[in-house]
């Protein structure tokens, strides 16, 4: 069976990568390539939609696809847990709504790095995240950092909140699920995340660096192929990789 894919944001870097992967795959077919001037009606008839646009446009695209019963993979950053909860409520309230897969990062290594951070989280009270992206990235903190912080917060459970002294000072970073997150936007950087754990006489750092956009290819293909059989709202590529990883399906 060939999966027909509509790509919103097809002219951007991630969109161009997705279009190439779709055209090269035997089981995928490009149904429509949408840019900022395209009508969302072009998505109608697709088996799956892919949103790799920007935070300001993403919500309208997701709501349109879900409302039309089209499974959609969301690779756009800027989706907080509160905004995802709103989409979850919409999907639950409409029996014919299409499933929504929120994928903060398509990199397998990044997903594993976040999972490893969640595993370590109960053993350290001092935890901070430093993430760096190219200067043109419009949102901060990144969707990956938000996802990692949420996993850390969930994993701590009975351990209680992370120790975050002087959190009222802006230089201490933005608190996400109680975890200080620091964002760098610099020329010469693709993407990097460091989760730093501080303990008694020791530190542990879990680092993931993106060296090439090729690191996203396997994750994009996995998400597109998984979307037609999905249901409800799913958050994180980890939910598609291994149910044993710390992840969330909502």
From TrEMBL:
The lineage of its organism: Bacteria, Bacillati, Actinomycetota, Actinomycetes, Micrococcales. Belongs to the DapB family. Residues 114-238 form the Dihydrodipicolinate reductase C-terminal domain. The keyword Lyase does not apply. NADP(+) binds at residue 37. GO terms for molecular function: 4-hydroxy-tetrahydrodipicolinate reductase; NAD binding; NADP binding; oxidoreductase activity, acting on CH or CH2 groups, NAD or NADP as acceptor. It is found in: Cytoplasm. This is 4-hydroxy-tetrahydrodipicolinate reductase. It comes from Agromyces badenianii. Signal peptide: none annotated. Residues 3-106 form the Dihydrodipicolinate reductase N-terminal domain. Its EC number is 1.17.1.8. HAMAP family: DapB. (S)-2,3,4,5-tetrahydrodipicolinate binds at residues 134, 143-144.
């Amino acid at each position: 069976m060939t999966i027909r894919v509509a790509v919103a944001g097809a002219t951007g870097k991630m969109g161009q990568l997705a279009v190439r992967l779709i055209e090269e795959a035997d089981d995928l077919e490009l149904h429509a390539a949408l840019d900022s001037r395209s009508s969302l009606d072009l998505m109608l008839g697709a088996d799956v939609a892919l949103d790799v646009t920007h935070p300001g446009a993403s919500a309208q695209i997701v709501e349109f696809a879900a409302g039309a019963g089209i499974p959609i993979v969301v690779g756009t950053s800027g989706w907080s847990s509160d905004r995802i909860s709103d989409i979850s409520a919409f999907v639950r309230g409409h029996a014919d709504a299409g499933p929504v897969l929120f994928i903060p990062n398509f990199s397998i290594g990044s997903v594993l790095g976040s999972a490893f951070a969640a595993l370590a989280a109960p053993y350290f009270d001092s935890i901070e995240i430093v993430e760096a992206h190219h200067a043109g990235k419009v949102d901060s903190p990144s969707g990956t950092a938000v996802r990692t912080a949420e996993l850390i917060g969930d994993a701590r459970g009975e351990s209680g909140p992370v120790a975050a002294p002087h959190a009222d000072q802006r230089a201490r970073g933005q608190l996400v699920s109680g975890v200080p997150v620091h964002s760098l936007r610099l020329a010469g950087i693709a993407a990097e995340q460091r989760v730093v754990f501080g303990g008694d006489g020791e530190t542990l750092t879990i680092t993931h660096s993106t060296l090439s956009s090729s690191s996203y290819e396997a994750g994009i293909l996995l998400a597109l192929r998984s979307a037609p059989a999905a249901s409800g709202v799913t958050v994180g590529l980890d939910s598609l990789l291994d149910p044993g990883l710390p992840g969330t399906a909502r």
